[in-house]
Design brief:
By secondary structure, the chain is α+β, with helices and mostly antiparallel strands. About 25% of the residues lie in helices and about 25% in strands.
Amino acid sequence: MIDYIESASISKHADGQGNEDRLFMRDNLCAVIDGATTKHLGPGATGATVADLVCDSLSRATLDDGLPQLVRIISQHVRDGLSGRTAPHTRPSATLLLYSAVHRQVLRVGDSHLAINGEAVRGAKQIDRLLAEVRSLYVRLSGSWTAEDDTGRALILPVLRQQYRLQNSLAFDEYGYGCIDGSAVPGRFIETWNVPDGAEIILCSDGYLSPAPTLAQAEAELHEALKADPACIGTLKGTKGLNARQVSFDDRSYVRLHTR
């Protein structure tokens, strides 16, 4: 069973709308799902669509098999749900971070953060590190960033629009990464951690900087960093800055729980 201590899921938008993160919280299963919308313009499914499909799949899960099998079931459900709604280059995706009380394991596909009894494991993608460095250097050299016009984002956008080719791909060396998008997730991208009895677990999306010990600390850490680096080219070095219509660079979700 799971004892929930605190949780939150907050949109990056100032009006509070459009959150593509989802929290799934049941007696024996908890998940943080971070939906990511394609960078290609046009109609179609969104990261929220994928996140909702993941939640729907989890609500039907029996947990009789191992967690890698659960990832396969979820991926098939997402594939069926997206059928006819997206082309490969417009395929949205989501990260998946969950704790199963049945298996006493945390599972991660993607770049979310977690902590087990204070031992933090941060998530990051190599492609994001690379593009964040390029964007940061360009903005620093040009001095041209504003909250209304992120010139560094525009510079890396052509690569971001090709990033779908890296999803669940083993063909691009260290740049491939795991996600839930309806395609098969290679075992290399499925991570698991065993959890002892009575452990405290923190699961959060990468809209937070780290799996801080409390939600209040996670919020304070984020807001202090945003105040100091709204362009996200220093402490917050990333692939986008703080948009004028946003309160943060990404949606964010956090769960703190005890196992028993």
